[in-house]
């Protein structure tokens, strides 16, 4: 077997090993996104309208509004899960965009300029990391009240540090490469170098971070909603549904089991897809078995 054939076989084995996990993760996420977007158009019940005559009804596939049962107020659990997925997607995607933009910008500036700029920004990052996320959430909610925008703000403040650290490390190595020095020698400005030469070369790492960070955001949103710091009722949220179902765990297990399973599946799908992307985009794994 030639060297080229060996390398080709190794790449194929890597792809085959991670393809199944990536495919499963992508399928789970695609199904959740599709159902969340299609929720207003599906023939399901209202996620907020109570029906005390059907409260605590167990899952029944023969009844349209009881496929996953009903909660303590008779609300359709299936409808609440799908509409709760919409809220989770909105919050997590908005947080990825806002927190990612802040973190990537700070990481680029700190790594590119170095010196006092780097020290000031990194010490700011260290101070941010010293504040517990839940304490920060309590402070923001106490000052501004529970709201979708405030939830995104809190989660973004807890997320940007992940991007800033990794991007800074990438920039510190990329800025010394020949093509960056060549761009600087012909008079390219700092913004042009960062945007057109450095950022594209760190994009693979940023995509992996964003994918893996999405799983943490799903859990964070559920945790904050569980504590009453998320989207206020009557809007459905997976974390709030878990909190509301605690008193009924023995008599109506589905009230907590259904949103818990939704969280588990979403996080599993994101992690599978994130691991596959990491192994495909990380050049350090190219020579491994």
Which terms summarize this structure?
289 residues, mainly alpha, MetI-like fold, 10 helices, 71% helix, elongated, disordered N terminus, disordered C terminus
Explain what the structure shows:
By secondary structure, this protein is mainly α. It has one domain (17-39, 63-285): MetI-like (MetI-like fold, Orthogonal Bundle), CATH 1.10.3720. The protein is 71% helix and 0% strand. The protein is built from ten helices and no strands. The protein has helices at 3-38, 77-113, 115-129, 133-144, 148-157, 160-174, 178-185, 190-226, 238-245, 254-281. Helix 6 packs antiparallel against helix 8. The longest helix is centred in the N-terminal third of the chain and has 37 residues, at 77-113. The relative contact order is 0.15.
